[in-house]
Amino acid sequence: METHQDYTGSKIGMWLFLLSEIILFGGLFLLYSSYRYKNPLDFHLAAWELNRALGTINTMILITSSLFMALSIFFIQKGDRRSSALFLFATILLGILFLGIKYVEWTAKIEHGLYPNSPRLLGRGKGEVLFYGLYYSMTGLHGLHVLVGLFVLSGMLILMMKGKINENRFVPLENSGLYWHLVDIIWIFLFPLFYLIT
Amino acid sequence: MKDRDERFHRVTHQTYILVWLGLVILTGITVSMAGMSLGRSSIVIVLAIAAIKSGLVLSYFMHLKYEKGLFFKLMIPIVLAVLTIFIGLTFTDVAFR
Amino acid sequence: MTKNRVLEETHPIASFYDHQGRYRGIFAWILSTDHKRIGLLYLFSILLFFSVAVFFGFLMRLKLIAPGFALMKPQMYNALFTLHGIIQIFLVVLPAIPSIFGNFFLPIQIGARDMAFPRINLLSWWLYISGAIIIFLSLFTGGGPVDTGWTFYAPYSLRTTVNVPLAVFGVFVLGLSSILTGVNLVTTTHRLRASGMTWFRLPLFVWAIYATAWVQILATPVIGITLLLIMIERYFGVGVFDPAKGGDPLLYQHLFWIYSHPAVYIMILPAMGVISEIIPVFARKRIFGYKAIAFSSIAIASVGSLVWGHHMFVSGQSDLASVIFSFLTFLVAVPSAVKVFNWVATLYKGSIELKPPLLFALTFIFLFSIGGLTGLFQGALAVNMHLHDTYWVVGHFHYVIFGGMGFGFLAALHYWFPKMFGRMYDWKRAVWAWFILFIGFNILYFPMLILGWEGMPRRYYDYPPQFHTLHLISTIGSWILIAGLIWIFFNLVQGLRKGQRAGDNPWGGATLEWQIPSPPPKENFEKIPVVEKGPYDYTHS
After folding, report:
1. Is B90 found in the same domain as B55?
2. Chain B residue with Cα closest to C312
3. Which one of B62, C160, C357, C436 is at 20 to 30 Å from C292 when CA atoms are compared?
4. What are the tens digits of pLDDT across the range B59-75?
């Protein structure tokens, strides 16, 4: 019996899964575009309240984590396991930092009484209610994906330490990297739509 | 079977760093644009920059630029077309009620 | 109709049933990554859930046998039609052909030993079973069985106190199973074709499954997010579908139908693929217009993803959207018609052998055409005004789904039975059973078209006396239909237990599955074939 390890096939499978993730978020973008179209002013007003500095920092964090992810794969292909593991570890740290900042942002809003179904929020214009609804839903779903990604990357790090991921076998790391980059891309769109619209 | 046999392009780490720099700069541009009031067109510009950034991540970090075969060339255009159609047809309702 | 001659085998080849792997007993099945075993796991689970849903349908029809018949309370009736829909759509019709016959035969038909991702294949089945269990649990917990209809429309689904969250979460898990199956099927088709198996030498069943798998990957996530949003709405009240908070229930409908319309193409495309396999074999003739049929599968998948608004003509959506969706709905009938014309053209001047698989295939064409034509009525805006949410729609979708996909499924089962099980069933009994089913089917569903035309609304648990006669006829039809189904499966079970051993190629097919033993060995092929001719080349028969 032949064991087939089809590198390209494995990549195709991962990409197909990523396409389904893009569509998953696409449904939320559909809601966002519809509600923004109907409530342009309210969306503008609510967006001002979001912390643009933190949002920008988070964007930089994810972009840099993508760089580190790519470098991790670069080094494992060259056989430099140490550098690869270090960059993978750094990616994970940045991911944790991202979630930390999101936690800070969310708790700040919640303490101000601005969360789904809160009396304060319901007292505002309908567009603002929807903006926050979409904000929590979309950054929440994104954050969940970041969390899952961190678990997957940690798993990859462990495999790497055990030598199961090496210069001859790194497809799982590459596929995990693809997932991580997609998580970055989704944030690249979320960031302007929630923090930068004027 | 070595995974390495099938891949041949080797992206240098310099390329990665340059891409990262590009992403940082584009982020800077997009943030500063948000400060200016360009009205309607601001969302178009901001989304366009997001698209360029995503394109960089897709092409270089995710290696799409170096993948061979019709499948890899078509899959992003296909998924974008699908999303455009879903949102576009929905808008024939939302925008015309 | 004569029985086939059983081919003598000079030496028995160990089949995939005999293979001894790491596990014993039931674990050798439920932990197997062999695509053939997984296909059979799906077969038995799906038939089990189908029986439950048919029973619910039986109860519904019994309630409707006469006006005022107090068989059950309205709440129970609502739960029954909801669960009948959920089970039939998400647990039976959507997975049936791709996960049973796609799993079993796609790898063999392209000359591969298994799917691209055998362990993900097994995961798909486990997710499927988990989804079923979650839905089952929702019947007895947190407020009881759902009563929203399988469509879970907001705002009712956001407010009703029954266990909506668990039920929709179950469907979410089923969606994930479907997506993973789609990923597996697309990757397998791209990567594991044997040498010489070019795209245009692929059996049309493979083309059909391939097109379907793309829809599974690209459409299913939309219902995924929609179901998640129901849960988020119920628990957190974000407001996206709640008018009091500025939300729009119509956006729920858009998101829901963006998946659920292409879903019906996930249901019908594989069945059409089965018909494209069967017709040439039993006409002893190359299929007419191979490329047209292959591309029409892609066309149906694509254009079919653009018509979802035809479920919303009376919802309050804009006139512009309604006009556009109506036009696109008429357009999607064209590639389906292409297939029907090509099948009929294949039969013309063929050497017809009316054996059970062909009988079911021809019935598919007849019943699906009726269903499709009734769909065109609904696609016309002015007519839709009167037909929406009536029994006409119920009749329509049962003709296309049951008459279409259901008979296509039975055709596949009767065609591939000898290959999967190594035995042959009784043909005469199969024909009699078919006859009972066919009669029962039309007596059950045709009156619904008339009832709907006359104004009988759907999902109503009672009705005024003027509709009594047709409801009575329909209910009697349900009993005949069930008798037919029982007879069909009794015949197949008897075939399993006592049927004659089937040879490698009882029907004289030219596709690769007929060139290997019945049942196939674990690795499918002793040696991976080098393909030199097309799938419907009968020059040697």
Report:
1. no
2. B93
3. C357
4. 999 999 999 999 999 99
